Amino acid sequence: MIKVLFVCLGNICRSPMAEFVMKDMLQKRGLSDCCHVESAATSYEEVGNPVHPGTRRVLAEHGISCAGKAARKMTAADYDAFDYLIGMDRGNIRSMNAICGGDPEGKILKLLELCGDPSDVADPWYTGDFNATWRDVNRGVNALLDKFFPA
Q1: 14 flagged as catalytic
Q2: pLDDT per residue as tens, the chain (151 positions)
Q3: Which residues pair with 73 in a beta bridge?
Q4: Are 113 and 91 contacting, i.e. CB atoms less than 8 angstroms apart?
Q5: 8 given a catalytic annotation
Q6: Closest alpha carbon to 6 in 34, 42, 30
Q7: Where do the domains of the chain lie?
């Protein structure tokens, strides 16, 4: 089983969107039993808080529930627990490396780099544009699934 942890600053916008988009795509492809997917934050700021209403709205518009999700902080132990730790932006990647004490196994990746795009996933916390985040997350998650399960 492949274990994936999506990571952003607060774990209320981008990383939970990626978590639940991937779970939905896996379910639709009949691959739910092949992957374990979670999300976490690099900071303590939002720990225990639910998914941001904007992310919940966009997910719901696409028939995806994130009910029960509460933000959690990434820990160094996550490095051993997951096969891939996927950050949403350059700042997340720096923080993830600091939390884990480096990346000796090459497990830490930036989501959009999986589809050949060096950009960061649009951060709706600052822009308010959850649809842009939806588009970025879908591109990245599709590329990740293509990596895991090539056609």
Answers
A1: yes
A2: 999 999 999 999 999 999 999 999 999 999 999 999 999 999 999 999 999 999 999 999 999 999 999 999 999 999 999 999 999 999 999 999 999 999 999 999 999 999 999 999 999 999 999 999 999 999 999 999 999 988 6
A3: 41
A4: no
A5: yes
A6: 42
A7: 2-148
Complete edge-to-edge strand list for the sheet that includes strand 108-110: 35-41, 2-8, 84-87, 108-110
As a whole number of angstroms, the distance between CA 115 and CA 142 comes to: 8
How wide is the angle at C-alpha 74 spanned by C-alphas 71 and 78, nearest 5°?
130
Q: Which tokens belong to 134?
A: 């939806």
Q: Is 103 a catalytic residue?
A: no
The tokens 């879908």 sit on which residue?
138
Q: Which of 14, 35, 56, 120 is catalytic?
A: 14
Quote the CATH superfamily of domain 2-148. Response regulator (3.40.50.2300)
- For residue 110, list its beta bridge partners: 87
Task: Please provide residue 74's backbone torsions phi and psi, each rounded to the nearest 5 degrees.
Answer: -65, 145
Exposure string (b/e) for 50-61, b if CB count within 10 Å is 16 or more?
A: bbbebbbebbee
The three-state secondary structure class of 2 is strand
Q: In the structure encoding, which two tokens stand for residue 105, read together? A: 């196994």
Q: Which of 78, 89, 123, 136 is catalytic?
A: 123
Q: Which two tokens stand for residue 140?
A: 């990245």
How many angstroms separate the CA atoms of 79 and 108, rounded? Answer: 9
